[in-house]
Structure formats: C-alpha cells, structure tokens
Amino acid sequence: MCATMDTLRIIIVTLALMAAVSTVAGHNITDILSEYPEYSVFNSYLSQTKLADEINSRQTITVLVFNNSVLAKFLSNDTLSVVKIVLSIHVLLDYFDMQKLKTIGGGTVITTTLYQTTGNAIGSTGFVNITDLNGGKVGFGSAAPGSKLDSLFIKSVKQIPYNISVVEIDLPIIPLGILTGGAPSGVNISSLLETAGCKTFAKLITDTGVLKIYETVSTKGLTVFAPSDAAFKAGGLPNLNKLTNAELVSMLLFHACSNYIPRGSLKTEKNPIHTLATTTAGKFELTVQTNGDSVTLVSGVDSSRVESTALDSVPLSIFKIQNVLLPTELFTKSPPSVPAPAPETSTPSAPTPASAPRTIASSPAPVNATSPVRSPPSPSTPPTAPTPPTPSISSPIDAPAPAENPAADTGKSNAGDGIKVPGLFVALVTASISGIISSIAA
After folding, report:
1. How confident is residue 397, by pLDDT bands cut at 50, 70 and 90?
2. Which is higher by pLDDT, 11 or 401?
3. pLDDT for residue 13 is more than 80
4. Which H or E element spans position 127?
C-alpha cells in the first residue's frame, strides 16, 4: 500500500512538472479585445499601428482602454502616427489589476509606458501618474508637469495574473503638446538619414535614383535598414565599385521593404522579409534573429544588428544598422564546373581566392553608371601541387556565416507562444507513467 502511494505521488509530481513546463503561455491583445465590441476601434488601431505586436512580445503589461465613442471624440481626426503615440502612452510596463490599484492607499505611483521606450518622449511624457483619489476612485494622468488626473478607473476588463491586465478608463491620457507636435509631416528621408549618421547610404540612394523609389513606396508603407557610415569603412567589406550600376541598385533596394515594420513587429517576425529587390530572378530576402531586445538581420552572406530607430512614424520606419547587408544573389558565386587547364610546371596565373578581384575598400564611391564594372567571376581552381597551401575562404566579408538554424539559441519570443516541451522529454515521461500505472494495475 505504501509503495502504491509513493508511486501515485511520483505520478502527480511528474504531471505537475509537465504542466509547469508546457503551460507557460503568452497573450494576444487582439484576441482579448475581440470579445468586447465596445473596444473594436481601439483594437483596430492597435493592429494598424503595430502596437499589438509590441504588446504581445512583452511578458508583463497593462493596457488602459477606452470605448469607441471616446476614441472617436478625441482621436478620429488625427493621423495614425499621432494615434500610435497616444495609445502607446496607455500601455504600462507593469501589471495593475483592481486589487493592486486598491493597495495604492491614498498614495501615488509613477509608472513607465511603452512611449518612453521609443526614445521620443520629452520630459516626463513617457510616464503615467496613478493616484488614489479616495472614495473608491483612482485617477490616471500624464506625469508631465501641469497635467491633470482627469482619467478615472471604470472597470477591470480582463486579467491573466501578472502577465497582462486590461483596464478601462473614461478618458484618454494626452500629455500637453502631443496632439500638435507628435508626428512629423513630409519626412525628408535623405536628410533624416544624414542626421542619423548614415550619410554614405543617403548619398548612394540619391545618386542611383533609389531614393525616388523609397519615396514612392513610403506613401503606403516602407521600412528602411540603413547602414551607418562606419559600416562602409569596416574591414572585410567587398569593393562595391566592382558592382555594375544595376547590381548596386539591387543591393540598395535589398535594404528596404514595402511594409511598415516598427521594432516591436520586427522582434516577432517569423517569416522571411521580402525586400524591394525581391523579383522573379531572385528572392533577395532577409530573416530576423532576436536575443532579448537585440534584433539582428541575416542576409545569407552576413548579418547586421539593428543599432537604433531613426524614425517610427506610420507608415514609415527607418532603422540604423551595424553592417552593410550583402544579398546572396550578388555576393555568392558558384565555382566553374570545369577548371581552366594550366601546365603543371607553370605558376598558376589565376588569382587565388585570397586575392580575388573583389578587393576590400575602406569607403565605397557611387558607381559611374556610364561605365559599369561587371561583377568579378569566381576564381579558377589552381592546379594541384604536391603540398598546396590551404586556400582562404572566398567570402565577400570576414564576418562568420549565420547558423544553419537562425532561430536556434536566439531567445526569440513570439506573441502567444508558450515554452515548448521537448518531444523526447514528453515521450519519456509518458512511457514512464504508463509503466508505473501498469505495475500498479498488476
């Protein structure tokens, strides 16, 4: 009997461990709000501005919502850029449910919002003041000086304890100056890139005419990955002057896509990103790797970490990146199937891979379109020698190649995904439990 009880305890503990591993779940704000028609406009704006992706990627968060009629009264005439700023102020980076709000006990709590993380918040506009007003009332307002606590707690809408809380307030929190100066208009992409420290890239897209393509696409949605000036001076960068004008244009188009992808959405991107260079002749795709808040773009030849956000204004997003992205369609060449013959006694005239025609340039100059330089062929295989030296790897950059499985060991967290239980672990535990139960039955 004692042995049977011990066995049952083992089963219970094992099942509890499996549950703990497999049921750590995320949240999806869009799904949560879809159950409440009175917040349908608020929910729609979260999707249009991509704030939903940022909310879903965070583990502990509170969303302050207001109903459709309130939103229509205060924000219906504003651009999506302004709406995104206002709504991001209503996303608190802490967990507040009704019980926690009651514990303020006549005091005040200042909490950080999603807007503060953008780096665009001026002064205290990225913080929210939560104050117990006594008599069962809780007020919300901007922490910026001179702001009023004129938004009141209405009700608790939905909670997943210590993960996400959705709370309704009666009025939006709008810091002074947000509605009048929140969104830039008529963005000059070239000037913005120069200010961000991407002057070389700005000159290249201007000289080649790619800037005009960017400007045309930006009206409906554009994301630009702009290499810093230091990226064009990095050792190991191929000589971009060896590219033809058409190839250089393709490489510059490879640094942008025709979608608005802010940083929060970039962190949760699972699928390859189709760039403006994507055609039937080549994929020209980028993949994304994340490690915590760090985001890295992988081209297939090299990779580049996102350094900062130069602009996030719906529908335009511009990132400053660490390295020049090299597409496989231009910088990976297959060796000739039949090597060129050469006398065994003569010194091979073909250059070795280490001295390939694609030389290293410290800083590229714009291509002269009237005299394009053809992309260099792959070096011929030198004749076999008694003790040949180990050839250098014919790679356009010195950076290590990306892992075969970009998602491995990156710590990437996707919205709604729980911690996955390894198949082998589940199989072993299931088999063990089945054997234990069989022994009890016997």
Report:
1. very low
2. 11
3. no
4. strand 127-132
Taking a C-beta distance cutoff of 8 angstroms, is the pair 252, 346 a contact?
A: no
88-128 confidence digits (pLDDT tens): 999 999 999 999 998 887 799 999 999 999 888 999 999 99
User: How far apart, in whole angstroms, are the C-alpha atoms of residue 298 and residue 222?
Assistant: 19
Which H helix or E strand runs over 428?
Answer: helix 423-441
Whether 103 and 136 share a structural domain: yes
Q: Which domain holds residue 320?
A: 195-331
Task: Answer yes or no: is 404 within a domain.
Answer: no
Q: How many C-beta atoms surround the C-beta of residue 120 within 10 A?
A: 16
In this predicted structure, what is the pLDDT of residue 77? 86
Highest mean pLDDT among 8-17, 85-94, 113-122, 285-294: 85-94
Q: What is d(CA 265, CA 268) in angstroms, rounded to the nearest whole number?
A: 5
Which of 151, 180, 209 finishes a domain?
180
Query: Which of 19-33, 346-360, 402-416 holds the top average pLDDT?
Result: 19-33
Taking only Cα atoms into account, the Rg of the chain, rounded to an integer number of angstroms, comes to: 28
CA distance 271 to 287: 7
pLDDT at 297 over 90: yes
- 31 and 175 assigned to the same domain: yes
d(C-alpha 361, C-alpha 239), whole Å: 5
Q: Check whether residue 227 and residue 308 sit in a common domain.
A: yes
Long-range contacts, stretch 66-69, CB < 8 angstroms, 24+ apart: 66/39, 66/42, 66/168, 66/169, 66/170, 66/171, 66/172, 67/38, 67/39, 67/42, 67/168, 68/38, 68/39, 68/40, 68/41, 68/42
Verify that 209 and 168 share a domain, yes or no.
no
E-strand stretches of 284-428: 285-291, 294-298, 303-313, 316-321
What is the pLDDT of the chain when averaged over all its residues? 77
The CATH number that applies at residue 157 is 2.30.180.10
User: Both 322 and 224 in a single domain?
Assistant: yes
In a domain? residue 77? yes
Cβ neighbour number for residue 336 with a 10 Å cutoff: 12
Asked if residues 20 and 429 have their Cβ atoms less than 8 Å apart, the reply is: no
Best CA proximity match to 313, nearest among 170, 156, 163, 184: 184
Would the pTM of this model clear 0.85, i.e. be above it? no
Neighbours of 262 (CB within 10 A): 23
* Residue 355 per-residue DSSP state: G
